[in-house]
Sequence to fold (220 residues):
Amino acid sequence: MYTILRQVNYIELSPRQIIILDIVKKFGPITGTQIAEKLSLSRAALRSDLAILTMSGLLGARPRVGYYHTGKKPTELIAGIIGTVCVADVQSRPIVIRETCSVYDAIVMMFIEDVGTIVVVSEGGFLEGIVSRKDLLKATMGGKNINELPVTLAMTRMPNIILAAPDEPVLRAAKKLISHQVDALPVVQMVQVEDTEKFEVVGRLTKTNITQLFVNLAET
Ligand code: ADP
Fold:
């Protein structure tokens, strides 16, 4: 989340940055030294403002030519910002249950943790499956004793689980939530255990995380 907040702040320009933007719009392409002269400041004093304006995408810079106004619209800038956010910036902590637990245990955990999806893990926190509200509802409808019904019988299991990686762009992960019509993706890191590759569960990406990101973008 910190990256995104920092990046969004770039769009909230200081009065001096707004003046620089105006100068470049009027006189660009223009060198940093020429801008500094117009403001009666040293080139060094402008360095951070120019860096902010170029990193935010408002200004472009070409060597030996100078700064120019990119003419990017705010929507394009927001798309650019979203493009820099990765799953680790917005994910929640993982809520997991061991594969030895019952359907009853999973239902209790869902209430205690106030979540709609629980990741089922083996010893060591490795991904085995995922259970949703409807999986558990369905399991309760079979007339079996849910205290004795293993959660593994209700879950969707590997390799059918749609995953996210911490360094994956959040936009790509959000598209997976939509295209696979699921509410959450386990965030995993691949680890080698003896000869097999396993997925260590390090987080949870939910539709709520995406909604929160949307709100943060509007409010910062
Ligand atoms: P609900 O079932 O409560 O509507 P979901 O839409 O998230 O919640 O889940 C729909 C189905 O997809 C369930 O059977 C669930 O086990 C499965 N599921 C949930 N998340 C994933 C995921 N990340 N990858 C694969 N299957 C999933």
Q: What stands out?
A: Strands lie at 59-62, 66-69, 96-98, 117-122, 126-132, 156-157, 184-193, 196-206.
